[in-house]
Amino acid sequence: MKTKKKFNKYMLISVISIAVGIFVWWLLTAGLGLVKSNILPSPDTIVHTFIKKLYDPNPEGGTLFVHLLASLQVALSGYGLGIVLGIPLGIIMAWYPRIEMTVRPVFDLVRTVPGVAWIPVMVSLAGIGLLSKALVIFISAMVATVINSYSGIKQTKEVHLWVGQTFGASNWELLTQIAIPSALPMIMTGCKIALGQAWTTLVAAELLASTKGIGYMIQQARGIFRLDIVIVGMIVIGLTGAALTGLITLIEKAVLKGGKY
Amino acid sequence: MEQKYLINCDHVSKAFETPEGVFQVIEDLNIKVRENEFLVLFGPGQCGKSTILNTIAGFEPVTGGEITVNGEKVTKPGPERGVVFQTTALFPWLKVMGNVEYGPRMRGVPKKERRARAQHYIELVGLQGFENSYPIKLSGGMKQRVGIARAYCNEPLVMLMDEPFGHLDAQTRYLMQEELTRIRQLEKRTVIFVTNNIEEAVYLADRILVLRNCPTSVKAEYEIDLPRPRSYTDPEFLRLRREIDSVVDHTL
Pairing between strand B207-211 and B218-223? Predict the structure, then answer.
């Protein structure tokens, strides 16, 4: 009861602070006219543009929905591949010393290169279609998942492994039934971080090389001084990112029933 | 008559290699444990009591001498030696039932049978109703009950307990000592119990071995014949307590 009350209070304050922010924005632009509309459009222009972009492909050639779908397709395929390969790689790298010795040096070289730095290489390899951007996102997502699953496995408590040994568990059983479950919270954290990385890398990749997508829309609108469309794009990126994070938090809660340990 | 010993530590020594040189933890330790005996290893602070249990459990190899359990030489951990750990080593991702049935599950006991057995031990330690709780929801005392049930459920020949109540508050500790006595009267087991608490030692033990400070070995031995359940304020209890306490190496 008390926590619910607290939560409502928290919600109320959040809503008020956002409302005040928008009001100040409106006051500076449309309200008092202190900032010109070609530098910062007013909130009502943004709402108007947002609604218009839902059905109007002009000026850059796609509705908001088409752009969002294109972006999601790229981001999720790269991200999906990144975590599907990254999690097992991190796990076996941490568990088997020989694999660690062989793979880790290569991985350590790759991981310090920011995902965005791969864009030129990937574009020359695979063009400006879905594949090149998906590959860039794949690399950024994989690095984050590998690091986190690797440390998760490395942090398995020795005493938990001892318990398994007294019960006669084999090395494979120690890995699958003790090390992996105890690394799950870290693995989930890795998936979350990777998602953030994937989303930021996506927008950067689209700004540089693409023919559709939210990043492309922003880039084109910037070229013709349509700041209202730029801001609509930014808002869509923010909201979609938040929605994806919310989704993965729900999955995390469902997976980690024993709490974060 | 030849007495049957379940565990035999014969001239055991254990040294750790450290950057500062070789660190001798156990030196020439001889322990014989009878079947169904409750043996308490009692000694000061960091005297290597846990290391003794770890070598008997097979987690750490000895560097000299030999340990045999039921006639077989100890080289690695095994299901005939159940361990209850100092910090509760429960698996946080498994419910109480999952933790308790873990040993039989690893040995491939069919689900129905191991569930029934786990249920029996969950009830034995007084946790009925908590089968589907995750450890995070349990208090310290309850977690240690699960730890005891988990070790019991695998039906080991010997239970190794490494200061299992060391992290509990005083009140819970007394309660758990009573509970352990009650549980053991229902199901006899050979127990080696490590503690640095003299009161706990006298309350639980059939026999107490007082250990020297590092490098450790047996300094004195006491048979405790007091009837159970024991009283902490019984004059004989207090006399034993004083006597044993006077033998111990006191450290800071």
Answer: antiparallel
